[in-house]
Sequence to fold (697 residues):
Amino acid sequence: MKKSINRRDFIKLSAAMLFFPVASDLLDIKAEIEGIAANNSQFNNVIIILFDALSALHLTTYDYPRSTSPNLAKFADRSFVYHNHHSAGNFTTPSTASFLTGTYPWKHRAFAYGNRVNEQHAPGNMFGLLRSRYNQIAYTQNLYADTFLRQFSPFLDRHLPLGSFSLTGGTFYDNFAQKDSYYAMGSLDDFLFDQDETSGSLFLSPVTDFISAIKLVSAKKKFQNQYPLGFPRQPKTKLAFTIDQVIDGVIQSMENWESPFLAYLHFIPPHSPYRPHRDYLDFFNDSWEPIEKPVHQLSKEISQDSLNKSRRDYDRYIANLDAEVGRLFDYLEGTGLMENSYVIFTSDHGEMFERGMRGHSTRMVFEPILRIPLFISVPGNRLRKDIYSLTNTVDLLPTLLHIAGLRVPEWCEGMVLPGFGAEKSSDRPAYAVEAKSNSIFKPLTKASVVLFKDQYKLIRYLGYKGAPYGYEFFDLKNDPEELNNLYLTHKAAKEMQAALDLKISQVNKPFTKET
Amino acid sequence: MKFLTKFPDWQASLPVFSLILFIVYSFTTYRMLFQIPSWLYSHSKVDIFFLASYVFAFAFIECTMLFLFILLMNLILPSQFFRAHFIAQGSLVVTACTFWALILKLYARGYEFNDLREPFEWLLIFALSLVVTLLAASILMKRHQRIEELIESIADRMVIFTWIYAPVGLVSLLIVLVRNII
Fold:
């Protein structure tokens, strides 16, 4: 903890005070906190390691047929391993907002690319609530996750810029408009100089592309063509990187972090483009092929051959990042940080290579996109504990508050994770929401909403053409591949439909104009 | 003061700058039309105003930079060849740059070079295409005076847009500066 208040702290405190009137309303206490490590938690660090677009179903620990992640498996052997953990959204913006606020997308309203958490719930973010306990450091390679870090920067002690450790410099908003990054990001990086879409700048954009290409070819020479498929890239930006340099950079930065700290480290691999180091390009030239699933009405109808090829590249990229994560874990072990820190390994969402769809830019919400890994290494524990209860991204914030000995606010929609004091959670409902085409100011009318309960999963498609019946229902225990839609025949389907419809009408109420 | 005489006068500069403004702002506004529906879904009117301010401020900077590039060409190339026909030659440079920019945007987005020679080869092709365009135009204009008159008259008609785009750009620039200074 800091001993005196300097000018920077005063500015942060002033910014935090602006939120105080709202925060005090939100901080109505509900939960009676119990469980491990409450008394001395202030002496333990929290290190959150999040890899973007990492589907749990592609990891060795979760029985994937390919050995993609031996180092993660080793880490899992000393951790709490959550086998039924789901993301609250199917891409970065809603899921990261849910992670950081403990609320579902219908509450935080970060539906689409580049959205922020709405002002009402912004004060209830992880960094704001844990400010009194930890020195807080945050770093992300994801442009959209950085929007949240910028939004919550008054509560951060250190925010590493998006372009840190990259081969090609920084973003436009970091370079030109740090004070006004939200608008600069939305207009410059996400429109005028957008790398992935046809950008809005006619002349400057090709010039900046040209300069980036020169930087890249210089880097290529320096790295002696270690990345034959091209360097890994941070989507929507001109930033390229190598995974080992990023991990080295983070390790180097860690040496200056003052304990107790909370570090949020959000790495972009294995997000597309899948570009592993050349050492991994020969991996998985095997005969294994996944089960071929029927093409979905909401898919892009990509051929199975093409999907299998992409899956192989994705698996190679995971193998590459696993080796680098292994180095990071070795560093944590070697410095003793593993022993005195809660190390949380997870992802924001998954990735799919089935039903005619690749990636996660979709309205579909099948398990490969929503099932994400969650391993938590607890100080003083070296034994693996497998947990099969239903858990969700929104549970991380209440768990961290619990660890820090703080109360869980009533507005929080998550609950303390099993293993940390919430063992009896088998009948809790959990949700996931995709609503990128829905206005944040209006009720949910164009969205895919998922209700998980026990072993069942109900999907409701709102406002989309082509979805069968508007609902899909799966028994995940007996049909983990989601091949049989039991909506019309299973007796639990109607019950869950009523519950989900009620929930949707409740969350829509504040946004529905009374007539 | 002698140095200033190397530059074209105000009457010759304005049509060329206006043509740049017209092309850049038309393209950016056209692209922004695709962006606005998603902005409306998730941004307040104030948010959209500030986003548009950044877009138009940078569009203005873009125009200024391209105009400075043309002034640089004016300094480098023989005055009888370029400055004496500034409106026509300047407009042709703008057109050639637009052509190349569109080609690059359509076909070379995300392109990665294989070795360090490649970017310089591309630069050489670009420079050669400019020189060829200007030489061909120069020859044609010498033979057919009406071609130069036609180009000048088109550029001249663009001046009207300056009275819309230039204030929008300058006010946007001011907004961006104020937001980043205060």
DSSP finds 14 helices and 16 strands in chain A. Residues 183 and 219 of chain A are 31 Å apart (CA to CA).
